[in-house]
Amino acid sequence: MGFIDDVMKNINQGINDIQNKSQEVMTNISLSNRINTLEGKKTALLINIGQLIYDKYEKGDEVSDELLKDKCKELALIEKDIDAARVELKQQRVEGDAPRSEKAAQQAGYKPTPGFQCPHCGAAANSSKFYCVACGGSLKEAQASGSNGGTSSGNGESGQSID
User: Model confidence over 69-83: pLDDT tens digits?
Assistant: First the structure.
């Protein structure tokens, strides 16, 4: 009966793999749709701002600078949301190819700090942690210098720019 058990085990593993991959695909689609929706809002807002400016200067309509400032602030928030969604989508896509250690860290609730990277391997890292989950390198250097890790020479000497 060992052969049948092995076959069943392999079938169950295959089903689990398909379920996990399907979940990843659905998450990617959801994030892509969110980005597209935000891009649509951004475009509509840019058109609205352009129309207000046109009406102000060409038609002589009264358009307050406060209204334009409010529209620009709204646009900045939308762009921030788009950037955050793109980072999340990129992380989601990388996670599919991530080593087991990174996947385990993500499942345990590890969240990288946006814009913060390991000075050794360049992986997204959490600025409140001491070690990188991807390579195990020390994050203390990047934390001390306040950098995002992008100025390391890769040999553990942070603060030196790469030219």
Answer: 999 999 999 999 999
